[in-house]
């Protein structure tokens, strides 16, 4: 009796695994030491930067899952200016810093990309300079950003990705053949 639900679950997982495989992203970061603002408010700079780069790489991969199977998005990040500015605070332990977010401290991200097809040919490429000067409009943005250090940068990337690759995004629904 247990075999039927087990077979159904296995079949569902197999179906999901074949439809989940799609485009991928390969992300590199160039001359990180020259980025406009890529510093932590506290902690070790190398660890902070690695964590942020890993998170951005994962997000580019998440976005690329919408691309057709076998397409590869190569991204080279050339500059990052994180939302907000580091400002000193003074207390018992001496000087520390906090990241203060004001409407004039919008996120900026510069990168180059190439979208490659299954045959390796370049489908689309460009040099991108993103900035979102209206990043703080909307009451939900502030509440949601407290749970994600790169919320505003990801929001900006999502808008860019959807607009740039709208004609390349998968239109198949799960379970449909490509």
TrEMBL record:
Show the InterPro entries listed in the entry: DUF3016
Which keywords fit this entry according to its UniProt record?
A: Signal
Question: Would you indicate the residue range of the signal peptide?
Answer: 1-22
Q: What's the protein here called?
A: DUF3016 domain-containing protein
Record the organism.
Answer: Idiomarina aquatica
């Amino acid at each position: 009796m247990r075999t039927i639900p087990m077979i159904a679950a296995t079949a569902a997982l197999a179906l999901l695994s074949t439809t989940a495989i799609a485009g991928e992203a390969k992300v590199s970061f160039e001359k990180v030491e020259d980025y406009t603002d890529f510093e932590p408010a506290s902690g070790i700079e190398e660890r902070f930067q690695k964590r942020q780069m890993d998170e951005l790489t994962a997000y580019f991969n998440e976005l690329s899952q919408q691309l057709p199977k076998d397409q590869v998005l190569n991204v080279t990040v050339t500059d990052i200016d994180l939302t907000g500015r580091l400002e000193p605070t003074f207390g018992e332990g001496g000087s520390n810093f906090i990241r203060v977010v004001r409407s004039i401290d919008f996120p900026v991200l510069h990168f180059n990309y190439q979208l490659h097809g299954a045959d390796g040919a370049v489908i689309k490429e460009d040099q991108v300079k993103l900035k979102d000067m209206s990043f703080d409009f909307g009451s939900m943005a502030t509440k949601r950003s407290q749970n994600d250090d790169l919320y505003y940068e990801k929001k900006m990337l999502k808008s860019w990705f959807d607009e740039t690759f709208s004609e390349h995004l998968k239109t198949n629904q799960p379970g449909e053949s490509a």
